[in-house]
Amino acid sequence: MKESIINIPGIISHTFRHIEPRLNSHGERVAYILMQMFKDKSEISPVEKQNIFMLGLLHDIGAYKEAEIDAMLSFDQNDSMAHTVFGYLLFQTFSPLKEYANIILYHHHCNAQYYSVPINDYHRSLARILYLADRIDIFCQFNDSRHLQPFLQGYQNSVFTEEDIQWFQRTDTKYHILDGLHTGSYYEELAEYMQTLTFTEEQIHDYLLLLIFAIDFRNEYSALHTSYAVQVSRNLSKVLAFDAASCKIAEISALLHNIGKISLSSCIQNMEDYDSYLKDIYKNSTQKITKNILKGNVDEQILQTIEQSFLILDSWTTNKPIPFSPEPLSEVVALSYLFSNTLTTDSDIGAHHQSLLAFLWDKYRICSMDNKLLASLEPHYDEIIKETQISCASLSDTYKQMVNEYRSLNLILVHYNHKYH
């Protein structure tokens, strides 16, 4: 399977559109502003321009952990910065742009230094430009763009430098940025630029992890949900001796299988809430969102694998015969999520080995499924579960470390806001 069929910017853009209507396409517009501002900067390499574009696209990736959208849309200097902390931790831990994480942390009120995280002059300047693009877009979404200049001048030399404001104005005069944002014509230029972006296999993997864990790490109950499924899919594929291409499809399908859950509330306080969350994931509306996000951005075989696995899981839930012969890849992904759901709610799944296997044998019989694949996996059940738990243990530690650092950095933020505001 060629990696080029995974359109990372497209997946990110389509995912963000299902989070918060008021922020619809905000990241894309900020990335577009930055794209235009850096277009004629010959001293900046194409790779660096791509990195800056991706920063714009992802700069608010931490905004969906806390209910702070109202504050983000404000225009005073007391806007919340908690999302920058979570975004910083996600970038530092998972993204292929780890060295840019401090820009995410400081892209609001970026002249101040609240934290002990160092930032060099170049990254400080990028943080200011990123915030400038952010505020321009937010202002123009709610106000007449003819009033933008007085707005920017009101913050000149306090938040934004005169040089950066003039840079934007020169670029707007040449490339008509504000007109493009107002009419929506910017999207065609944006899509054309996205087609020129190139990513390594490792970068694609890391961007997908960044996006998925931005969703899963919003609470302790869902933190390892996708990770368990991905690890199970790897272990099942290994036992079944899939070829390399099939292993990759199974892994990516497991990784992206539930991306539609970005539209669900992350307010999960207990296992009862989590059970309800799992049920919502497998509703038709969430499946439709997953398909909308991925269609045209991944290979059709990945879409088919995900769609079939949803049908298998639905048949197991409703005890209805499956009206088709599932592909082995789809069966593996369905099993991966059944195991993931169980692992998330039952840390001692190994002790209940026989009951889970009996449950599966019963479901295969009721749903009229060929049990050849299940029979091949049964002797390796304990090994699969053990290896999955070992693989996910370090990620569990990572989540706990991120939570601790998040609390620590936010404590600093609270003190800063109390002292200066």
User: Can you count the helices?
Assistant: 21
Please provide the ordered H/E string of secondary-structure elements.
HHHHHHHHHHHHHHHHHHHHH
CATH architecture of the largest domain: Orthogonal Bundle
What integer value in Å does the Rg equal?
A: 23 Å
Largest sheet: none
Low-confidence stretches: none
Structural class: mainly alpha
Structure summary, number of beta strands: 0
Number of structurally distinct domains: 2
Helix content: 55-70%
Beta content: under 5%
End-to-end CA span: 54 Å
Instruction: Provide the residue-averaged pLDDT.
Output: 87
CATH class wording of the largest domain: Mainly Alpha
Shape: elongated
CATH fold topology of the largest domain: Hypothetical protein af1432
Tell me what you see in this structure:
With 421 residues, this protein is mainly α. The chain has two domains: 3-199, Hypothetical protein af1432; 219-402, Hypothetical protein af1432. It contains 21 helices and no strands. The chain has helices at residues 8-16, 26-38, 46-58, 69-72, 82-94, 101-105, 121-142, 148-154, 162-175, 177-183, 186-194, 201-216, 225-239, 244-256, 271-281, 284-294, 300-318, 328-345, 353-366, 372-377, 381-420. The radius of gyration is 23 Å and the shape is elongated. It starts with 7 loop residues before the first helix and ends with a helix.
